[in-house]
Amino acid sequence: MKILLLGDYSNLHWTLAEGLRKLGHQVCVVSDGDFWKSYKRDINVKRESYTKLGGIKFMLKILSLLPRFRGYDIVQIINPIFFDVKADKNLFIYKYLRKHNKKIFMGANGADYYWIKTCLDGKTFRYCDFNIFGKERDTPYNRKEIKDWIGSDKEKLNKYIANDCDGITCCLYEYYASYINKFPGKTFFAPLPINKESINIEKMELLKKGEVKRESNKINFFIGISRERTTVKGTDIMEKALDRLHQRYPDKCNILKAVSVAFEEYKKMLDGSDVILDQIYSYTPAMNALLGMSKGLIAVSGGEPENYEIINETDIFPIINVLPEEDDIYNKLETLVLNPDSIDRLSMESIEYVLTHHNNIDVAERYLEIWKNSQ
Which pTM value belongs to this model? Predict the structure, then answer.
């Protein structure tokens, strides 16, 4: 098939494209690299300026590219806002894509109207980015997202595309739960893809044989930090818990902090770590946690029962599931530090988990199944 993937978050589309190409399909990824992360893409649509003139130049660039976005069997957009322009312009581009291609799918892979609305209902999730145990989580970022998506042009765009498209693909349980009741016939779950070639299968086999020797008795904790977005995924709370842990057990743990680094550098910094701390408001591990797990790191992230149920996992539970509370995070980190013998088992299970559920070849086949069988 000829497949066009528009936009990218967390390297999802590029990693998916690698899997699809391995299966013999022709794929084009068009994105801006997701800002500083600078993910790979076939066609770069990074916006250089947010001035009025910069906006005109960027839109002219997109318009000049539109003829190249025709004649595809499948078009998938990463989000209702798939290009870095306003909702009305994304709607214009969507309608063009709809007219000139066979099937079009919308990704539910990040903030949008339906997810935020579901988060705010205080019922669907016990906790989430916008609501913790029934109490709304009021932050500047959340206020901005609510203003952007509720009662806005983005809401209208999201509703239009969700109703019009051939299917909705969801990469996390939370996004799936936000759409399945409203669009039961066209909502599908497809796990986040991790490049199969990057999964450390050799380490997993050595761990199974007990042949991996740790270089130090200290546990090495890794946390990625974007200083401008520390409250978004709970990095601020995780960092406090980590610092407390290090103060109490300086002889038992090390902390490596990656502050606003590009994706390729981020991947290199993971090597040598034992534990990765990722987001805390999610029921499910996202891409950074899965990337760490593929290397044998233990993820401190979302690992609620709903996560394991949606992927039909009943045997291995390698994620250190934490609540969005500093004390809960600290207590679970302390348990790891005081029980270093559990590290090898959890490391082995982490690799096995990613290989089983997230390798990009199997995920690509899941997408192909969705695309072929929908409507």
Answer: 0.94
